[in-house]
Every structure is written in C-alpha cells, then in structure tokens.
Write a structure and sequence with these properties.
heterotrimer; A mainly alpha; B alpha/beta; C alpha/beta; A: mainly alpha; MetI-like fold; globular; B: MetI-like fold; Rossmann fold; 4-stranded antiparallel β-sheet; 26 helices
Amino acid sequence: MKRWRYLSGKISWALFTILFVIVLNFFLFRILPGDPARAGVRDPRLTRENIEAIRVRYGLDKPIINCFESLNPVKIGSCVVNPLDTQFFIYIGNLLQGDMMISFHTNRPVTEILSERLWNTVILIGAGQILAIIVGVLFGMFSAWKARTSLDYASLTISLVAWSIPTFWLGVILLFWGSNNGMPIAGMSTPGMSSYPLLTQWGDIARHMFLPTLTYTIVYMGEYMLIMRSSLLDVLSEDYILTAKAKGLSIFQILKDHAIKNAMLPLVTIIAINLGFTVGGVIQIETVFSWPGLGMTTVEALNRRDFPVLQGAFLLIAVAVILSNLLADLAYSYLDPRVKTE
Amino acid sequence: MEAQITTTATAPRFQEFWRVFRRNYMGLVGFIMLVVAIFVALFAPALSPYDPSSTLNVTTSDIYNPPSAAHWLGTDDAGQDVLTNFIFGARVSLTIGFFAAFISLVIGGVLGIIAGFYGGRTEELIMRFTDIMLVIPDLPLMMVVIALTKPSIFNIILVIGLLYWTTTARMVRSQTLAVKSRKFVLRARAIGSGKRHIIRRHILPLVLPILVVQAVLVVSSAVLAESTLSFLGLGDPTALSWGQMLNYAFGRGAMSTGAWWALVVPGFGIVWVVLGLTLLGQGLEQVLNPRLDTHHLMPGRPVVRNEANEDAEKPTGKSPLLEVRNLSIHYINEGSPPARAVENISFNLREGELIGLVGESGCGKTTLMLSLLRLLPSAGQIVNGRVIFNGRDLTALTEDELNSVRWSGISIVFQGAMNALNPVRTVGEQIAEAIIKHLPDFPRESLSARVVELLDLVGIAADHKDHFPHQYSGGMRQRAMIAMALACNPQVIIADEPTTALDVMIQAQILELLDKLRKKLGLAIVFVTHDLGVVAEMCDKVLVMYGGVTAEYADVDVIYNNPKHPYTQELLKAFPDLTKPKKKLSSIPGYPPRLDALPAGCRFAPRCPAAFNRCHTEQPSLHKLGDGHIASCHLVEASK
Amino acid sequence: MSADNFLEVRGLKKYFDVGRPTWFSGESRSLHAVDGVDFTLRHSEVIALVGESGCGKSTLALLLMGLEDPTAGTVTFEGRDITHLDDHQRKDLRRKIQMVFQDPYESLNPTQNIEEIVTEPLAVHGIANTPDRDERVKKAMEDAGLKPAEVYLKRYPHELSGGQRQRVVIAAALVLEPEIILADEPVSMLDVSIRAEIINLLAELRITRQIAVIFITHDLGSVGFFADRVAVMYLGRIVEIGTMLEVLEKPQHPYTKALISVIPVPNPRLRHERIILQGETPNPIDIPSGCRFHPRCPVAFATCKVSDPPFVTLSKTHQAACLLLVK
C-alpha cells in the first residue's frame, strides 16, 4: 500500500514535470526575442509574400493562445478564438501525434531527424555511464577502505582533477592526441563501411566510440568516486559494521554483505540527479567528436537557428532526463526496504 | 557521540577557523590557486606582454606561431599573443563566474531559508519548483535561452545565475530544517523571540558556513558553464574568455595545424581556477563540518605488552572463564601525547557469573569492552595486559584466529540496537549470518527453524523474522540483538548499556530477559552501565571505573553496603533511592577528567571530598582488602 | 477556584493529524498525544509529571508554553485564560513561564557566547538597555550557580561541561524573573554524579525566588526528594495524582504500582519482586477501548474493556483513575 502510493506519487510527479517542460518549451520560443520565421529563414532573396507563406506553413499567423496575438512584443488579441485554432493547442495536438514540425533547414520532419539521432546518444551515454560508474565506484571503495593512506590521497587527487577538467577541453586534448595516433577523429563510422560484414562495421563503430567514451568516463568517474568514498566511509563508521566485525565476519564478507549495498543507495539518487548535467557533457563530447547524436543536432540547429529542431531536441532531452530520474526513483524503492514497508 | 559534539559545538569564529584551515592542505592549496588567478585578473595590464586591443600588422605568417622568445606561448588564429589573451581571459571568466554565483546564491539562499523555516505550503511550492528546475537539463536550456536572446556578458551572467541556484536552495533548506529542529530554536521561541529574530540570530549564523562552501562550488560551476557556452559559440563575441579562445582555436584549424599551445593554454586556465575552487570547497567543507575519516575496518594497532608491569601473582585454583589482566589502552593522536583511556584494569569472570561494570560517560568502560575482542577504533591501542579466554590469550591471536572466537565464544549486545542492526537486511538474515559463519556444518534446512527458535527465546513472534529493523520497536530491536548474540551459543555475553535509551518498563523487560537467559543457558555476562540501581538488582560482582582506572572492585553487597573508595561512596549518595524519598541527593562537584589532561595524582582527587596532599601527586595503586575486594585509594592503604 | 490555583489546567487535549486523506486512501487518523488532562499548580509548588515515552508529557509541556495550540481545554494563569492569546499577549506571558530543556548540548546556540545567551531574553523583551541589565544578568547567572559570573560571560557553550550548560539554560530563564519554570527532563542527559546539582538548584530556586516548577521526567526515582506532588501519565492522561509520599508509598493505580516496582533500588539487599508489564505502550493513534490501560493491566477484569474509569478521590490530595477503586 505504502509502496503503491510512493510509486503513483512519483509517476504523477514525473508526468506533471513533463507537462511543465512542454509548456515551458512552447512559451520560451515565443517570449524571447526573435521571430522564428524571420530568424529561421534569413535568406535576403525572400520576398514579403515568401515570408508570409512560411508563416502560414508553420502556423505562425495564428494567435499564440487566447487573448494573445503574440508574446514578444506582447500583442493583445481576441479572447474568443477557438482554442483549437491557436498555436499553443495546435502545438500540443501535434505533439500528441508525435509531430514536431518540419526542420527549417532540411525540410524533414523533426521527429524523424531526432529519432535517428537519439540512439547514437543513448549508446554513448550508456557506455560512458556504465564505465564511469564501475571505475568510480571501484576507486571510491578502495579509497574509503584505505582512508587516510597515501593511496587514498592519490586517488582523491586524481578524482578532483578529473572533476575540474571541462568536458569539451578534455575531448579536444584527447582528439588532438588521437589524431596524431591514427585514431578516427570524427563521426561514428568510416564512410563506405556498409559494404563490409556486420562484425567489421561494429568494430569500426567501437573504434570511433573509444575517445568519446573515454572522455565521458574520465569526466564522470571523478564525481562517482568522491561520492562513493564518502558514502562508504559513512557506512563503514556505522555501528552495524562494528556488529558485523564483532560477529567475526572477514573484511571481505563485511564489505560484501553489509557495506556496499548500503553505500550504493545515495549513489543511485546522485546518478539520477546528475543526469541533467550528464546531458550537458554529452553535448560537448558530441560537438568535439562530431558524434551524430542529439547533442550535435542541438548545436547544429542552434548555429543554423533551426528552431523546430532545437525545440524538439530540447523537449526530447528534457523528457529523457525526467524519465531516467523516475527510473532511478523506482530502482531506489526496490533497493531500500525502508521505502517499501512501513 | 564525541564526534557529534565537536561538530555541533564548534563556534565558527574566525581565528578558530583559520587555525584549523591553515593545517588543511587541500583547502590551502585551493586558496592559493584562487588568489593567484584573482591576482592575474586584477593586474592583467601589468602582467601581459602585449596590449590585447592592438591588432596592428598581423600577417598570415603571424598565425599559429609556436612558442618563441617574442611570444612565450605562441600566437593564435588571429596572430595575437596567446599569453596576453590568456591573462586578459582570466578577467572575463572570473567576472562572469563571481557575478553569476552571487545571483544564484542570493536566490538559492533566500528560497532555501524561506522554505526551511516557514514550511507547509510555502515549502512545498518552493521545493517542487526547485525539483523541476533541477531535472531540466541546464546546458540545453542555457543554450536555447542565449541563442534566442543576445550572447552578451550580461545575459550570460543572468542565465547562469538564474539556473544555478537549485543545489544551493536544497542545501540551505535542509540545513535550515536541521537548525530549526534543534532545541535552541525552540528555546528562543519559548523566550518570546519573533520569527525575524530567530532567523537573524539563530538560523543565519548556522546556515552561513554551508553557504560559504556552496558559494565556492557555485563559482566553479559558473566558470565551467561560461567556458562551455563560449566553446559552443554562445559566448560574448566582444569579450575573449578562455572558453572563447578555445572556440576560436578549435573552430579555426588549431587542430590541423598542430597548434597545441592555442588549445592547451586556455584549458589550463579553466582547470586551474576550477580545481582551485574545488580544492578550496573541499577544504572548507572539511574544516566547517569535520569528519573523522576513520572507520571500523581500518587496521588496528598492534598489541604492545610490557612484561615488567605484569602482576606476578597468578590466580590460584580453577582458572576463570575470562580473565582480564592489567589491561591498558591508549588512544594515539598524531602530534599530541597518547590519551590514557584505560589503565591497568583487571577482573575475572566465571561461568554463569554476572559482573557489572559501572562508570560515568567517558570513564573508558566502552573502550575496555571493545578491547576484549580487539574491536577498538584505529586510534586505540592495547599497550599492556592480557585478555585470557578459556586459557587463550586473545591479545596474542591473529585476526583470523580472533574471528573464530568473536561471537562463538564471546558476543556483544550493543547499546543502540537501531544502529547496531543493518537497516537494509532482515533481522532473520542477520541472525542466520552469524550461524553460517561459525557453524558451517549447521544444516541449511534447519537454519530458518533455528532463527525462529532464537527469536522465540527472546519473546519475538516467528512472523517478525523477515522484517527489517525499522519495522521493530525499540524494545524489540534490543531483543533481536540479544537473540543474535545467542546465535552461536557463546559462553560470554558483553552487554554494553543495553537498556540505556529505553523506557523504564521496557528496560525492566530486557533485564528480566537477560537474567532468565543467563540462568537457563548458564551464560556469563559482563554488564556495562552507568546505572547503579540496575547493577544492584542483577550483578554478582561490580567494577567501578573512574577516568579509565579501577576505583573499586568487589562483590555487589560490599560495593553498596561497605564501599571504601570515596568515589563509590559519593556516587551512591548522588543516586536517587526510591526507598528513601525524603533523602536529599548530593552531587559530586566538578566533572570527570578529560583523557588528554589527566591529573598528576589520583584521577578522582580534584573532586574528592577526602583528598589530601599525596592524592594530588601520587597515583594510588590497587589495594587488596581481602575477599577479592580491591580499591585504589591512599586512604585505604592508611587504614589497612 | 481557590486563590492559590495560580496555574489551572482543565480538560486539555491535543490531537495531531497523521496521514492527510489522499486520493488513494480517504482515511484521516489522529494521534491523541494529550487526551484530557486536568491539574492545578500552586505558588512555588513543585509538581512532577511522570510517564514513559509516548505518554504525552512533552506535548503537554509545549501546550503549557503556548508553543502548540491545544485541540480543546483551557489553561488559566492567575485567573486569566491563557489558552488562546495573540502574539503580543503571549510574549508578555513568556516572561512569567520559562522552560528548561532535556539536552543542554542542543538547547544552546553554539555561535553565541554565554553573555549573549543570557542577555538575549532581555533584548527580545526590549529591556536590554536598562541600567540594571548587567546586574540582572549577573544575578541570574549566580543564582543558577555560575559563580563568579565574569568567568563565564565570554565563553562559548562547547567550552563548558554538561552541568554548566544546563545552568546557563536556567540562567537564561531566570533573567526574565519567571514565576513558573517548566523543566522537561532536565537531568536525563547528564551524568549521575552531576544530576543532583541541577535538581538541587531547581529546589533552591523555589525557596529563594518563589518559583513554581513543573518537572517532567520518565524517572520516578529522581523526583523523590523535591516534588510536592506527583502526577503519573499514561497514554495522554493523568492516571494518578497525589502528594509525593502518597504516590510513592501508597500507589493505587496498577500502572503506578508497576512503575514504582521496576525502579531499580541501589541496594542488593532490597532485591524484590517486580511487576513487569508485558508488551509496550500502545500507539496513541489506536487508543484501547474502556480503560486505556486494560490490555497491559495485570489486574484487569471484564468491565475494564468497556468502561472508562472516572477519577476516584482517595484523599483530599490523592486521586486515581481505576475501576478497582470505584466502590
């Protein structure tokens, strides 16, 4: 009962947050300066009629929402418009059908572009995140166990330095190093690979993935190490560890049965909270390594002022982070019995 | 307990703070790194070899020149001196970092305090909003906002400031809640203080340290955020920050021309500042919220034995089950003399016997108990004496040999059962674990039945076996702890203040249970307590400890009806006795000695009503008064 | 009402809502922390409120201090109803009733020095600038046993021992010259050897400053020598009240009897049979029917399950709520 309430609370909260992001996403692009149509299509050869046609095509001729013709500059309009004929509700309606308008730049549906790119990002984050967690957790455990020895201080220093390096700069430096050492430096596959056997193709992708994943791992392992170290130190100074020791359990048994699970609990929450920052890191890595994922798409769209793509990418990223957070909450409720039961 | 007191009691006064901070290398290094960066930014015109605004006479041959005498760090894509741009870049990066951090700290601090202090709907609203802001990925949002507005320094500061307050708000709120729940805030209300007074005088001073640490971390995040935005081409084109330098270098062929200096130098600046701030933040955190960084799995210190100090007299007759002989324990602190926590303690325990170990907090009784199974914290060291259990000297065993004695020979019932049980494993599992460890041949299929049997023995119904400790009440947890202690049929149980936090009736239940089990199973028990009444009700023999030494050791009747040590006498007078309701209680003036500042003579002398000159200079030895009665007092020697 | 009933508590109740009704469960339950308490306090009298955790004694203290609002009932002070006061009246009243808390480590702000702590109440009440301020602070501190006051003024709480800190708390209460001190377990965190000095200090204050003391404790043993009257609480109610000797030597309620029997006596020659109640105090959300003590009562009979016992007057000063006493 308590668990069901916990879960339903978390799920409805995630839904509410998604709704908030959708609304924010819509108004952000209309409150801030810059008419999407003019900003998006800067071709000086366009006539007034052309621009008007584009405005009609993107529905920008309609009032934003009841009572508001436009928001920047604010222009009050009629309040007795059919709500379904306003930009806001058309946007929502389209979104529900999975339609996120058409790219200014390539004239392809945004949904199509994003769904192509999404998986590339998921692969990169997945590999990097798993490696960062494994390396960080192992280092953190080791450091906590050997607390206040020179080994601990060494791994602490490495972690703090890794934490302080800007992601994009580390990427640039690794790229610089890689380009001088025969590593592939851009994209996720060598052109013309599609004629080779599948295994070779995968090997090629793995080679392309190496540097971006390495960057990701170095940047995030430092933080996981620091958290794991302090969390495990907290656990290891708890009374129940003393009980376990008094029971005659070996150090290995104590770590395995009493310390690690307890120490991982805060980490789950932190990983979830960090997902927002993680996305920032991925954008930088994809930009540096020209990895064709959501991050690179966002930056490209930004440089081309391709607002439909930008809007869609932002929404997709935000929703993904919210859902991952929800997942982490659910995982937490399985790991910690204190959530399950009264 | 000790650590908690120091953390909450340390007044954050500046001299005190500086004294501790000076010895924190991490914080100090970070502080110096930051000061250097600020210095460079402030005196940029004086330090840089060229004037950044002059772009005269740039030809293609000036582009990406490697480091040389004229350009120590080479030139960039526009043929400008990298060193000059680097020095001036510090100004842009730090300005943005500090101003943005200031905005976010003000927002986060105010929202956090309001949410924490006022609670209710206000809190709910603020924290829900914070949660939403926290979950929205910040870099994409910043990118969108900057792209839609104008990438100027002002806008960048504003955007970072408006987005980076969430962690501050959360930290400040939880600290405010923690401070608000403390009794001095309730006391301030009881005095009649209004809300503004309480926030100003009681909440703010204790939230401030958190805010300082947070400020340092937010500045570093802001510097990072600015450089990232600039690198992605969203920086102010008129201000050349480090991120902007990297953006130009990366975008304009530094990679292909091999101009590593144009890529390495600006990044070095960012790492320098961010690392400096991170180290400073970590250092401040350690100073303002000290943690001991020690834990129970750290290797213990080797046992030292000073044969000369050993009692020559060997016990006669049948040797006792557990014999503690001349045990001394020191706490070793680097840079200060060792604290003599326990000195020269001896006692015997026979089968089925119950000995009471009585003393006030800090008298060393818990240290003594932990040392019996060598469970001392890593600073604790046995510096003399033996612990002989069934003829084996536990102080001479290896860790592995000791593990076989722990729990199967001697088990412990700890004080706070809530903390002594692992919260994420069921009580049944934790009991079974001990059986599996020590009785490897125990048939697995009857393990569950054995756990039920043990729980039944302490009066817990079988269906609670698979429950977690938080589902138990305080009394039940202590019973479960006792069941766990019985799991491997030990001969000795050490009960370390097992009833201290419990209500009188639950305390009576637990004491009755221990007494019943002792008779039924023939257990020998060492009962550690500060409660003279409990000792009188249950024990056969009593060891009264004061300041780490034996004050008096005798049969229970002697201790209560014929005590010889003034401390025992005074303690009895201070203890309320329901059978003599009109009797005025007396107290012992002063307070127990600190282990790092022990008096030269008898440790009780400063508080002793009968102390004379000799007591202040010479430590009394243990005087035997016959019938196993021992007292360490010069007066006893005189009367002998 | 006699003139000497200077604090009078009538039918005081405090219910806390636990679990607001949500979409998923419509049930709203309340925790009956204090469930109908009556007693009076005379000038410079010491009354001890005794009970185990969960009996409502700490909530009762907060109600008396006006730090919580009662659900029902009244508190009258010097003939004036003080149950519901506005902030201004409440603040004035605070000068008359002061409180001392359980944990002297927690009840002092670590960033204030002793002078600031003891002066603060005067500042709050706008009387910090009077010429006799220093005199007043000094007197309060010395009355609280911090002699000479100058030694302590500039020190910080962490530099003092537990007993000294508790004296600082008492000094900060005395500086407002209160008529009642409410002491909530003031010695339970202190070492045995210094408990007596705090209890003796409170006992002296009633004589030197005519202060009445409400002494809240779980430890019947410690109230022995200085309480005039003792009230025993169980699950939000007083079950027995009488003079100290009546309650300790002739207890009438089975709960009081059990409570007294389990208090350890510091003499092995007086080991005696104890009445150990089984189980634990029920959750104050689900109060048992009839007599709330019946599920644990060793002498309960059938009627106890259905009938809530009235207060039976045993002497002018002694009352207990038990059906066995109803003749």
